[in-house]
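Example record

One chain of 509 residues, shown exactly as stored in the release files.
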Amino acid sequence: MKLVRNVAYLSLVWLTTTCFSTIYWIIAGKTLSPSSYGIVSVTLQLAMLISTFLFLGFPSALSCLIPKLISQGKRKELQGIINHVFKLELLLLLLTSTILLLLSPLLVKTLNISSESVYLSILIIAIYVLSTMTYHVCYGRQLMKQLFLTTLANNVAKVVLSIALILLFLLDYLGPLIGVFAGYLIALVLRLKYIRVSETSSFGKREKKTLFKYSLPPFTVSVLQNLYSNTNLILLNTLTSSFVTGIFSLATRLAMFTQAIPPLVFRGVFPEISYLSGKPSQRSRQSYLISLSLRYAILILLPLSFLLLFLSKYLILIFATEKYLEATSFLPLLVLSFGLQSLGAICISSLYAIGKPKEYLLCYLYLTVPYLALAPPLTYLYSAKGMVLAMLVASTSYFSKSFLTLRKRVDLKLRAREVGQMLFSGVIAFLPPLILQRALLLSLLHAAALSLTSLLAYLLILFFANFFVKEDLKPLRILADRVNVGLLKKAVNFLERRIRKSYYEGRDQ
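Predicted C-alpha cells for this chain:
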C-alpha cells in the first residue's frame, strides 16, 4: 500500500508539473516570437547547467542515504549529513553568484542573450539549488504528499506570475523568467519546515566518507548528463541563431514527454529498491521491482511515441503558432532518442539503487562522449538536424550499455517474448494510422478519435495475447475500491477472473 501511495503522489507531482509546464510553454509560444522563446530557453538551460556543478551529487545521495540510514536507525548521522550539505551549498552559491556577476559581460556577448537574462539566471540558480535540496530530503523521507503540495504551489505561482508579467506589464521574455524564479522561491519556503535542523547530529570522518561515496559518482554522472541535456540549446544559439533555437526548443519539449513519463513508476519504487539494498535476503524482490518498472516503461513508451508523432502538427499549433511548424521535421528522431534515454535512465538508476555507483558512472560516458564528439561539428555543418543526429547516436549507445550492464548485475525477469509482444502490438495498432495521416487531411477531432481507437486496439491485442498479469490489475483494484463505481468493479472482477498468471510465473522459460 505504501508503494502504491508513493507512486500515486509522485504521479500527481508529475501530472501537475506537466500540466502547468505545458501551460507555461504554451503561453510563451503564443505570446513570444521564436527568437524570444529561444532566449528564455537558453537562459533556463544555462541556469540548469551551472546548477549541476553546484549540486555535487548531493540530491541523489540524499535520496539514497536517507531511507537507508533510517532503516538502520542512524538518525544522528543522517541529521549531520543534511546539515553539512546545506552549509556547503550556501557557501558555493555565494561564491558562484559573485563569479557570474563578474563574467556577465562575457556571457552576454558569447551566448547572444541580454544582461537582464544573465542576472535572472543567477537568481534562478540560487533558488533552484536550495529548492532541489529540500525536495530530495522530503523524497528520501518519503513525504510524497508534502512534495505534491509544495510542487503544486511552485507551478501555480510560475504560471500565474508569467501570465501577469507578459500580458499586463509587457515584459516579453523577462516575464517567464521571473515566473520561474518566483515558483522555486515559494516551494523552497514551504519545504523548509520539513528540513529538521537539529543540534543533535553527528558528522565525522565516517559520515563524510559515506556522503562522498554516494555523492561523487552521481555528481560525475550529473555533469556528464547535463553536458548532454543542457548544452544543445546553448550550442545552437551560439552557432546558429535564436530563431533556430526557438524552433528546436519547441520540438525537444514535445519529444521529452517520452523521456519523462516512462520512468515515473520507477521513481515511486526507487526508495524501496534502495531500502532493500541493505537487506541481502531481498535481492529477488529488488529484481522483481526493477523488471516490472522496465516492463511498464516500454508498455507506456510505445503508444506515447505514436501519439506525439501522429498529433505533432496539432500539438505545435496548441503550444505555439504556425511559425513553429518546422519543428515537425525534428520530431521522429527526437522521439526515438528521448525514448531510448528514458529506458536507459531506469537501468542506470537501478544500478545506483543496488549499490553499483561505478557502473552507473560508466554508462553515462556512453551518452556524453559520443554527443560531445559529434554535436559541435554536425551542428556547424547541418544546423539543428545535425544536433538531432548527434543526440540519437548518443542515446542508442547509452541505452545499449546501461541495459547490458544491468542484466549482468540483476536477474531481470523481463523476457524477449514480452518485448516482442509489445512491439508487435504497437506496429499493428499504430502503423496504419500514421500511414493514413499522410494520405488524408484529418481534423483534430478525427485525429483524436483515431488515436484513441489505436490505443484501444493496442491494449486489446496485448490482452488476447495473454500479455497482462495479476500485478497489472492492482492499481485498478485499488481505484475501483476507492471510487466504489459498480461498473468499474465488475470490469476489474472480470479481468481478475480472466488474468490469473503472476509475473513470477514462467520467467525462466
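Notes: The radius of gyration is 23 Å.
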